[in-house]
Structure prediction request, 376 residues.
Amino acid sequence: MAKRSYSLVAAVALTWLFLGAPSGLPGMRLGAQVPTPATAATTNLLGTIKTVAGNGFAMTTDKGAAVTVTIADGAKVLQLAGSTDLKTAKPSLLSEIVAGDRVLVTGSGGDAPDTFTAKRVILMKASDIAQRQAEQQADWKARGAGGIVDAVDLSTGSITIAAGSTKTLIHTSSKTDFRRFAGDSVKYQDAKPGTLSDIRIKDQLQARGTRSADGSVQAEEVISGSFENLSGVLISVDPAASTISFKDLATKKMVTVNVTSNSEIRNLPPQAAARFASQSSSSGRGGRTGEQAAGQNAGSQRSAGADLSQMIGKFPTVPLAELHKGDAVIVVASQTTSISKSVTAVTVLTGVDPILTANPNGGMDLAMSMGGGGGQ
Prediction:
């Protein structure tokens, strides 16, 4: 029985080793806790190699702990390549392990809390992980669809999403894998298991699956989350407290935004800012009524927001310390709660002065993009 239990644990751990690349891409599950095998004296550590020296290496576990691992005499080093089946693993050497590789080590704790003696090391090379990431990203680009949730039908398992003026019907089934984003992150490793009933109108959603001739998607995987889109001109920046404050253009209310290690701050180049400002602004031409012009403006904003969302990941990052009072920003943030009136930033986009000038009542809504770079 003990052997059978260990085999099950090993299979789960190997899946996390292969799918746990530190990339934040879909299908890359980081931060997973590896269960303890049936033998109480033996434990597993799962993480990423930092340095290799002598007869061991330093690693950071998926729980964030720094551990020095010593390879015991006679220990096995096995390498996986493109599979989580241990039967396909090939013998390897400590000398083949380099920084960035993923490892699952089995053994016992040393004399100090930050030391470990490994009896077995299962290795996944960083190069294999990179290839897996590229394949996953390409699959999301090819078979993914995303936007803002417009409708949810629990009786049929269908979801309607809107990206600009385009609406897409997402079909789900008992085989669909639902995941729900944490409030302060659109990184895949921070998402939790979810259900169809978790999804709400105005949520941001990405689905991956087979697209039918009518444009609908039979989803294999659905990832969703509730986020706020805010915009305004910074009134204060506090790098020490990791916060920014501004009056949101849409609600006219003061907002304090927490900027964490998960938050991305990116700068929109001037040429791109001018292009998106033009795309999102209301022309009001052709004798349209005020209501028609408002509807056109809303559609233009959604379309521009969808296009911009696909490109965010390509813009340069900037540190919080480089933001200043008077800078214009568009922010994707967690929703406020009854407990906290502040929000946590997922994405802060600067260099958006032309966009806010063209849209004085609120910047465009940004959506996450699992396959296009944004929100990775």
